[in-house]
Specification:
Number of domains: 3
Low-confidence stretches: 130-139
Largest sheet: 8 strands, mixed
Structural class: alpha+beta
CATH class of the largest domain: Alpha Beta
Number of helices: 14
CATH superfamily of the largest domain: Gcn5-related N-acetyltransferase (GNAT)
CATH architecture of the largest domain: 3-Layer(aba) Sandwich
Mean pLDDT: 91
Shape: elongated
Distance between the termini: 30 Å
Length: 415
């Protein structure tokens, strides 16, 4: 699994290596926003395939920023790593605050995806220079903490004085061709101070920038009204992509599949004794590749494995087929690891008393065909340990060999 580090002031220069040239134009792609709102976003970061990847946890849900590429960054590789990490953790790979310039890329990446663009979180962007009379309502304590970082080379801070009295101040950060305003404060008793501050700040620090970004309004009526008074050139959308898999879209219930000799169907409570015996046969399952007992995270009870299989299907993370001969459970075939990009992995195990009769090959082929032609997967993959000659023979009969490493042979079957 990926290791992420919390975003801190000490790590800010590492993030700035990516943000300083980032052309996304959204406030979330800045050090200031990550630091100022870290109590709400809980941001953590990692460098993947030459990209900055930020993982946030908002209201208990993990969401990712779109990867910010460095000079040699590979966005596709970074996205694939995020997706694989989410598969390992059993969470959906939600990509949030996606800039408009990357939305089409994700639409082409995910066959099934729910896309939202909530008006509340749009940023207000105006072209330089733009006279306006807005106000920003950032919480005072957060602003004070941010202002303690005045003097950092990536923050620009300016103020206006009436004699020795500070009457207005602003703090911003350049990211690509956008000047992102993190703090903007002024005393209303000074007529016209806000538009004067805005213009003076843009003149002082806007060199090389095309846009000034005033961040979102967080659904605050007054803040939205004042920001709209700037006459922004656009309200920059922030798309949220929730990729979905084929089970969510096409499978309401586990179907019954028929082969020449076998029936494959959902596990039933009457199958529990036979299913437990299958799962707990350590000698037989040394090639299974997954520790069913360890995966429980608790003691083994009569319904433990049955409940895991049922819950996985309820969450549309996997579908477990009972393999039946004359009505009796003799094995299982599991379609799992749906990658939200048209792929899933298939595994099959048969009770040792029924080994050597090609039942595994028959069941495996049936589920692969169902996945590809009934629920519209584009590929089914599988693997076997190199020492497992029986599985190698079975997979070779059903699929095309894709590759190998020190441990496994890999196979795939395409539409």
């Amino acid at each position: 699994m990926l290791e992420f580090k919390p975003v801190t002031k000490q790590e800010a220069p590492r993030l700035r290596r990516y943000y300083q040239t980032c052309d996304f134009g959204l406030c979330e792609y800045s050090v200031g926003t990550k630091l100022m709102w870290k109590a709400a976003l809980h941001p953590a970061w990692a460098e993947i395939a030459g990209c900055l990847v930020v993982r946030n946890e908002i209201d208990g849900q993990v969401v990712f920023d779109y990867p910010v590429p460095g000079p040699e960054g590979d966005e596709d590789a970074a996205l694939e790593t995020i997706e694989n990490d989410c598969l390992e953790r059993g969470i959906p790979p939600v990509i949030s605050v996606v800039p408009e310039c990357r939305a089409a890329k994700l639409l082409g990446r995910y066959p099934y995806v729910r896309v939202s663009d909530v008006r509340t979180w749009r940023d207000y962007e105006a072209e330089f220079p733009k006279e306006s009379n807005a106000k920003a309502k950032n919480e005072l304590e957060l602003a004070k903490k941010m202002l303690k970082m005045t003097g950092k080379p990536y923050f620009f801070t300016g103020g206006m004085f009436d004699g020795e009295k500070l009457i207005a101040l602003s703090l911003a950060e350049k990211c690509g061709d956008t000047l992102i305003i993190h703090i903007e404060k002024a005393l209303y008793s000074y007529t016209g101070v806000y538009p004067t501050l805005v213009q003076a700040f843009a003149d002082a620090f806007g060199d090389g920038c095309q846009w000034i970004n005033r961040e979102d309004d967080a659904a605050d009526k007054g803040l939205r009204t004042s920001k709209l008074q700037y006459g922004p050139a656009k309200l920059a959308p922030k798309y949220r992509f929730d990729p979905q898999n084929e089970l969510l879209n096409h499978v309401q219930a586990i179907p019954e599949l028929k082969t020449e000799r076998l029936t494959l169907s959902a596990l039933a409570e009457a199958d529990i004794p036979a299913y437990n015996a299958l799962v707990l046969d350590a000698d037989r399952n040394r090639w299974w590749g997954y520790d069913d007992v360890g995966g429980l995270g608790g003691p083994v009870e009569e319904r433990s494995f049955f409940d895991v299989a049922r819950r996985d299907f309820e969450n549309r993370q996997a579908v477990n087929f009972a393999v039946r001969l004359d009505g009796k459970l003799i094995g299982e075939a599991v379609l799992y690891r749906f990658d939200c990009r048209g792929g899933a992995e298939l595994g099959c195990r048969i009770d040792k008393a029924y080994a050597g009769n090609s039942y595994g090959t028959e069941a495996f082929a049936a589920v692969a065909e169902w996945g590809l032609y009934k629920i519209h997967l584009s590929r089914v993959v599988a693997k076997c340990y190199k020492e497992n000659q029986a599985s190698y023979k079975m997979l070779s009969a059903c699929m095309r060999k894709k590759g190998e490493d020190d441990t496994f042979f890999y196979f795939e079957k395409l539409v």
